[in-house]
Amino acid sequence: MPKNISIFINNKKYSAEIGQSVLDVAKKNNIYITTLCHHPDIKVQGSCRLCLVEIKGRKGLFTSCNTQAENGMRISTESKNISRAKQTNLELIFSEHCEECGDCIYSQDCTILDFAKKYDVKITKYEDRKKAYPVHKFGPALEFDTSKCIDCGLCVDVCKKEGVDFLEYKKKGKFYEVCPSSKKDKDCIYCGQCLTHCPVGAFEGVGEFEDVDKYIDAKGKTVVFQFAPSIRSSIGEEFGMPVGSVVTGKLIAAIKALGIEHVFDVCVGADMTTMEEATELIERFEDDRPLPMFTSCCPAWVKYVEFYRPDLIPSLTTVKSPQVIMGGLIKTYWAQKMNINPKDIIVVGIMPCVAKKYEIERSQNNVGKFKSVDQILTTRELAHLLRKKKIDLATIKPDSAKSPLLKPSGAGVIYGSSGGVMESALRAAYKKMTNKRMPKLNLKEVRGIHGFKKAEIKIADKTLKVGVVNGIANAKKLLEELEKDPQAYDYVEVMACFGGCIGGGGQPVPVNDEIRKKRSAALYNLDTKKVARSADENPIIKKMYKDFFNDDKNRHSVCHTSYRKKKKEVFPSK
Ligand code: FES
Q: CATH number for the 103-112+119-205 domain, one of 3.40.50.10990, 3.30.450.20, 3.30.70.20, 3.20.20.140?
């Protein structure tokens, strides 16, 4: 049997591998076929019937996503019959979907809306339909509007692939519908992968942009924005820029164009997280405290531990996440310098993640009497707000503000990708333990978007066994290893989303591994251009330790948190 075969698509010959689907061959050769229920992260569904093709010598139409390419096969991707069938299928799908696109944050990227235009589909209004279908609220983080759901099942499968398995099909009358699990031992961790895999915007973050809009003009309040490491290499996609474009200066300019005077870079908060986490790691080693130490920057992972594995709480680092530390610094260190009462400061975080909406509600993350961060907008929500205000990131002139709170080390920037927290902490731990810069700064062993990485890193006379996982399913595999050998790892980074924050639930869609790789590569590239490559080399971090964190009370209040076992929280559906 030949390893490679040939097929003809629209009369042109292409080489294909045995086992490849017709759709895969077409995609590889840039031949466009409409798809709705197909996502490269998920096993083939074959339910939407929009990827129809004709095969010469066979009767009828075939779904290309689950039809294997065969040697000599002759495929047509366009014909009158195909268009007519797609039109009918789209009308059926659209009858399942709410047609009120005006306020839908997703309408910019709505796949079926694009297809409806392409195939001239008459969109029928089902006035009463929306009333009958509930909106499920998942904590303070996300909502599932079932009137938009077309039951394609991508969310159910991605939730399973993630390792949470909270979404399920329930029988309702004759049909099955997607709904959250009512089982007591299952809860949503707010990773938001359902959002980035839903083709029709049925899932979204709990919308806050209207509140933020109100705050911007509020009298007597100082509204400040802070943006997460990964936003700089992803938000450009929302404005038609190439994937992986770095837009830090444009982002600052766009936020200022909204009327915000003070903008901060959460990468500086990441540098502070690194310093504290490296210290805690060394102390845990020396004081015989529980190892491995787990990172806690990802609130979805923290929720997973608190709900599913509370026995692991002592292993979570007590260091707060970068956005929470940065918000705390703004309301203490910066507020003092600016002589502003912290009660009058509103901190808005621009985050790649809907779980961050949950993280800021945790009272353990407050700084003194105040919430560290008041509002969260995801990358998509900020883009929506900018578009509403007619601010175009693609054309805006970059701002070149040079505030020290906008100047992170390279280690702070790479936090946005899986392995970045680990690499940053190891660079700083090396400096703390040897008083020298790490000779090999690029720790390739912990980089990359693949789900499970492990390495042994030598620092002074110690060899650290480290693990980096993304996706809870991979975290579970690592935990299984630890059951067998409790000393298998000393330090473990866990990010719930595929590829880390660059693949977060609040990031632009579509997303796939190719896109994740480009967003990630852009951050590592930025790191190499920085003079300060390690958090300890950042002048503003040194200054804050000298002037502000010389008081241990300040350091603890801004930088450290606590955790507790959680029960399932039920939020009533609307
Ligand atoms: Fe093939 Fe949906 S993409 S059936």
A: 3.30.70.20
Atom of ligand 1 nearest to the CA of 48: 2
Separation between Cα atoms, residue 144 and residue 149, nearest integer Å: 8
Q: What is the DSSP string of 261-300?
A: -EEEEHHHHHHHHHHHHHHHHHHHHHHT--SSEEP---HH
Burial of residue 3 (number of CB atoms within 10 Å: 0-12, 13-18, 19+): exposed
pLDDT in tens, 508-536: 999 999 999 999 999 999 999 999 999 99
Q: Are 564 and 324 in contact (CB under 8 A)?
A: no
Q: Which atom of ligand 1 lies closest to the CA of 23?
A: 1
Regarding the beta carbon of 48 and ligand 1, being less than 6 Å apart is answered yes
* Cβ of 65 below 6 Å from ligand 1: yes
Give yes or no for a contact between 189 and 304, defined as CB atoms under 8 angstroms apart: yes
Question: What's the pLDDT tens digit per position in 33-46?
Answer: 999 999 999 999 89
∠ CA 10-13-19, nearest 5°, is 95
For residue 350, give the amino acid letter: I
Model pTM score: 0.93
